[in-house]
Amino acid sequence: MRAALVASLILVFAPGLAMARSPVLVELYTAQGCASCVDANAALERTAEAPDVLALTFPVDYWDYLGWTDTFARPEFTARQKTFVARFGLREPYTPQVVIDGRYQTGGKQTENIDALISKAALAAHGAPDIAFIGNRRLDVGQGTAPRGGADVWLAAYEARPQDVLVKKGDNKGQTVTHINVVRSLQRLGSWRGRPTAYRLPETEPGLSLAVFVQAPRGGRILAVARKVAISRTAATSGQ
């Protein structure tokens, strides 16, 4: 029995309690059919190595018309990115874009600017509530300072292992595009109004890591972040 477990895919989950200091959330909006996104994907992979950062990849679908249908894109990721258009006074969504803690945005290839904004976000006051995963089906968000009107609690399930996709059409035809921490689903769990609140965790695909972030409405600032990482002892597989 023990030998069988070692030979199979084994998931080891990190403790559920949030870190003493909430990590900075870095969101990359990218597309496999976007020629300038390949370098941004690589830059995010380096950013993700920092222990005080949670870097997530949100593939969008509005470049699919160019000839290649993004294998990871979902319309809800595009909808999330569009909330930042009004938030930052942009004319339209674009790729590659990086959004940092809901506070700042910049081009996905501007690595020096990204690093500076991450450092700036880390120093900002959060008033963050504690977040704890209770088993596999419950999430607790503690007491804290909520924005007027409350905040949203989001759950992102993501693939922590690098995912390689061979693009067969479009601007990146023939290239293998690598993604890190690619989000596979995004769900709003409910509202948080500053009081301790419990939320039911939906079932997610086995093997995916979980990220929870408490965020001011309409793409506002991030108040707190927690993650529950699924660690695999097997080699990474293709994203297709």
Protein model, in words:
- This protein has 240 residues and is of the alpha+beta class.
- The chain has one domain (14-230): Glutaredoxin, CATH 3.40.30.
- The chain contains 4 helices and 15 strands.
- The strands form 5 sheets. The protein has a 4-stranded mixed sheet, with helices on both faces. A 4-stranded antiparallel sheet has the order 11-8-13-14, with no helix packed on it. Strands 6-7-12 form a 3-stranded antiparallel sheet, with no helix packed on it.
- The radius of gyration is 18 Å and the shape is globular.
Oligomer: single chain
Characterize the overall form.
Answer: globular
Helix content: 10-25%
**Name of the CATH first level:** Alpha Beta
End-to-end CA span: 31 Å
Secondary-structure element string? HEEHEHEEHEEEEEEEEEE
| Major β-sheet strand ordering | 3-2-4-5
Throw out a few tags for this protein.
single chain; 240 residues; alpha+beta; Glutaredoxin; 4-stranded mixed sheet; 4-stranded antiparallel sheet; 4 helices; 15 strands; globular; disordered N terminus
Summarize the structure.
The protein is built from four helices and 15 strands. It has 240 residues and is α+β, with helices and mostly antiparallel strands.
List the helices and strands and how they pair.
Elements: H1 2-7, E1 11-13, E2 24-30, H2 37-47, E3 53-59, H3 75-87, E4 97-100, E5 104-107, H4 111-123, E6 131-134, E7 138-141, E8 151-159, E9 163-166, E10 176-179, E11 182-192, E12 197-200, E13 209-215, E14 222-228, E15 230-232
Parallel strand pairs: 2-3
Antiparallel strand pairs: 1-15, 2-4, 4-5, 6-7, 7-12, 8-11, 8-13, 9-10, 13-14
